Amino acid sequence: MNMQVTRAEADNEPFHALEAEQALIAAVLHDNKAYGLVRGRIGPEHFFEHLHARLWEAIGEDIDAGREASYFSLVPRFRDDATMKELGGVRYISSLYLNVITTVNAPGYADKIVEAYRIREGRQLADELADAIDAGDMDQVSDIRKALSDIYDADRNNAPERRHIADVTDEVVGSLNDVFVSGVKPEDGAPCGSPTLTKCLGSWKRGCFYVLAGRPSMGKTTVGLSWMLRAARDSNVLLFSLEMSREQLARRALSDISYAAGEEIEYQSLETFDIDERQMERLCEAQRRFRGLRLQIDERAGLTVQQIRAAAAKEKQRLGVRGEKLDIVCIDHMGIMGVSDRYKGNPVNELAEISGALKVMAKELDCAVIALMQLNRGVESRDSKRPGLSDIRGSGAIEQDADVVMFVYREAYYLERQKSDDPIEEEERERKLERARHQVEIDIAKNRHGACRRMEFFCAMGCSAIRDISRRDPGQDL
C-alpha cells in the first residue's frame, strides 16, 4: 500500500510497520469481520502512529458496541483532529478504505505491527538495562531481563487459534492428574481476600465480568472498596472511581483498616478533622499497612469504556515491564460511565453497550473486571426490598454478559425508616433493627462458575468496614 507516512519521526525510526497499520485499518473498515480475526492480539498501544492508534480505538468502540465501523462513523470524531488536518483532512480515512488490498491478511498485518512494537519496546528496555547495569541496581536488572524475556516469548505470542477437542481434553485431564498427585491446586485468579467470598466464588477469575448492584445507601462502594483493599494484598488492582475523589476513598479506606469494635473512627470524622490523639496514633498505624497494598486509583469522571480500557492496558503494560500482571479492574460505577452518542438518552441500550464492552475488556486484558451498579427504583415500590435480576434496567444484557451478578442489601436501612405508631409493631421493628444493624447481605443471583447463594457480612457503615462474620478484629483482617 503506497500511502503517505504520517509521522515525521518515522524517518529516524527504523522499527515501525506504518504500511501494515494502514492496511489493517483499511481491511477492518472494508469488512468489520476482519476485526474478529485480530481481536485480542493487537490493541491501540501497539500502533506506532498515534493517529492510527486513535482510529483503531474508535473502530473497536463501534464494533464492541454492535455498530458498524466505517468512514461515516469515524468522520464526526476526527473532522477537527489536528493530525488528520495535516494529512488533508478526513479524506485520509477514505484513502485508507479505497486503497484496501485484502481483508484476509488482517492477522498478518497485525503480526507485523505487534512485532515492530516488540522491537521498539525491547530496544527501550535494553537501554534501561544498560543504565541499570552501570548504576549497579541488580534488582532493576532482574526486572528488566524478565520483561525482555516476556516480550519475546514466542510460545505465548504465537499460540494456535484452533485446537482439536481431544488435545484440549488431554491437557485438562493432565492438569487434573497433576493436582490429584500433588494435592496443590493452581491459582485461577486473584484471591478474594474473604473466606466467605472465596467459598462462593473461589477467586476473582481472569477474563470474567462481575457486577455488584444495589440501591443507593446499600453500601456498594463500601463493599467494593473493602474487597479491593483485601485483594490488593496479593494482587494488582486498578480502581476507577468515577464519582468519589481519591481523597474521599482514602478516608474511607483509613476508617476501614483502623476499625476495631468499641474504637471506631468514622470516615466523616476524618473529613471534618474531628479526631483525638489516640485516634491519630491508630490512623498512623493503619497507614503503615497500606504500604504493602498494590492498589492504584484513577479518579477521572465520565470515562468511557474505551478510555478505561486504554488506561487499564497502559497499567498492564507498566506492570509487565516489572514481570507482574494486572489482576483486577474495578469500576465505581457503571451508571455514570460515558457512552457513545448513538445510545445517549436510552438507558437500556446504554447499559447493554457498557456491559458488553466490559465483558470484552475482561477477556482482552486477561483480568477480572468488577463493575458496581445502581439499581432502578422498582425495588422501593415492593414490600420486599431485596433486589433481583429483574430490578436491573435492561437485565437481559447483564444476564448475558456478566459471569457473576451480586446484589447488596441492608435490611437495617429500611427498618430505620419504617417507624410505626402501633406499639407492638414498633417493638417488633426495633428488635429486627437491633439484629440487622450491623449486617449486610450479598446475594449471588447469577454465577456462571458455581452455585448461587446468599451471604451475610458484618458491617459498620459509618466506618466503611466490612468483615466476615467470624472476623471482626482488624488484626485478623488486613
Structure description:
- The chain is of the alpha/beta class.
- The protein folds into 2 domains: 1-186, DNAb Helicase, Chain A (Orthogonal Bundle), CATH 1.10.860.10; 189-476, P-loop containing nucleotide triphosphate hydrolases (Rossmann fold, 3-Layer(aba) Sandwich).
- It is 49% helix and 12% strand.
- The protein is built from 20 helices and 11 strands.
- The chain has helices at 18-30, 33-38, 50-64, 71-78, 82-86, 91-98, 106-135, 138-151, 154-157, 165-182, 195-201, 220-231, 246-257, 267-271, 277-290, 305-321, 347-365, 395-401, 411-415, 423-436, and strands spanning 189-190, 204-205, 209-214, 237-241, 295-298, 328-332, 368-374, 404-409, 439-447, 454-460, 465-468.
- The strands form 2 sheets. A 9-stranded mixed sheet has the order 5-4-6-7-3-8-9-10-11, sandwiched between helices.
- Helix 7 (106-135) packs antiparallel against helix 8 (138-151) and helix 12 crosses helix 13 (246-257).
**CATH C-level category of the largest domain:** Alpha Beta
Q: Tell me the count of domains.
A: 2
CATH architecture of the largest domain: 3-Layer(aba) Sandwich
CATH homologous superfamily annotation of the largest domain: P-loop containing nucleotide triphosphate hydrolases
Unreliable segments (pLDDT under 50, ≥5 consecutive)? Answer: 154-160
Sheet with most strands: strand arrangement: 5-4-6-7-3-8-9-10-11
Beta-strand level of the residues, as a percent range? 5-15%
User: Would you tell me the overall average pLDDT?
Assistant: 79
